[in-house]
Each structure stands twice: as structure tokens, then as C-alpha cells.
Amino acid sequence: MQERYWQAIIGNDASYDGTFYYAVTTTGIFCRPSCKSRVPKRENVRVFPDRQTAVAEHFRPCKRCRPDGLRLPDEEWTELIADYIKESYAEPITLSVLAEQFYASVYHLQRTFKRVKGVTPLTYLQHQRIEAAKQLLIETNKPVNVIGALVGIANAAHFATVFQKKTGVTPSEFRQSCTII
Q1: Which parts of the chain have pLDDT scores under 70?
Q2: Residue 174 to residues 124, 132, 171, 180: CA-CA distances in angstroms?
Q3: Cβ-contact 109, 100 below 8 angstroms
Q4: Calpha distance 67→17 (Å, rounded)
Q5: At 25, phi and psi to the nearest 5?
Q6: Does the keyword Iron-sulfur apply (predicted)?
């Protein structure tokens, strides 16, 4: 494999999309150079000039970057986004980050997610963070500000405000009500 191909793969270089595709022998999947999936080991990578060659070699298209050019149904695509949010809620996630990860414009992602899920991606993210915070408040004795940071809301005052807005009680009141029962 040429060094420029490898650099394009590890750098998620979209300028190479369409000029080559790479497959990972251990997974049996092929991707675009810009795919945001985990960087494979170099020795497990094969490079193909086109999609058809990768398919002929029995590799299947990646569900994240869709190198076959087919669009996922909105429901399936939205589930992938929701799963990403569930797994990454503690990280800084914005609409721009989601749009880049899932190859869409911010506007299209927001509109489609809300139509399918009934809530915006931000509301869904906040829900995941609050549910994780509730678990931590019940299961640990960590301070409220630490729990806020662990679920992705580093500013303690903002965390307390969001928590109270979503649950009707402060984090401390929530913890107290759980220990009394």
C-alpha cells in the first residue's frame, strides 16, 4: 500500500473519497478514506481502486460511511446516531460533530432525527446525560459537580440547572430521595 493511501486513511482525508477504497481483512468491511471508524492496523488493510473490486473480493460496505453510495433508511440512520449519542454522551457532542460523523448537513441531521425520534439530538443527548447522572447519584457518593463532569456537563451550575429542569428536583434532592426509600 502506498504511503499516501495510508496517510489518507489515518487522516480521514475526504479529498481521496472516490479515488480509492480500503478494506479491513479482519472485519471483512470496506470503507471510504474519510470514514470515521477506528483506524485499523496497517497490516490488515487492503486498497481497491473501486467499490466493485472490493465487493468482488467479498468485502461488505461499511454501515457508517456507506461507500456503496446507498443511503440508509432514515429510521436506521437515526438509530445509528442515537447509539453513538448513548455511547459518547460524556464527550463534547454538537450538531456539527454529529453531522461530520454521519455524513450529513447539520440541518438535515437535526430535521431527520427530530422527525424519527420526536426530539432533537440535543434533547436526546441531555436525556442520556441525565439518566447517567441519576445512576451515578444512586450508586456512588461522588460530589454533584464530579457527576456533572462525568456525564459531559463540566459546569456544575449548568448541570444542576439542566438536571432540575428535566427532573423537577436538584441533584442533591434526587440523591436524598433515593437514599430515604
Answers
A1: 70-72, 180-181
A2: 21, 13, 5, 10
A3: no
A4: 9
A5: -65, -30
A6: no
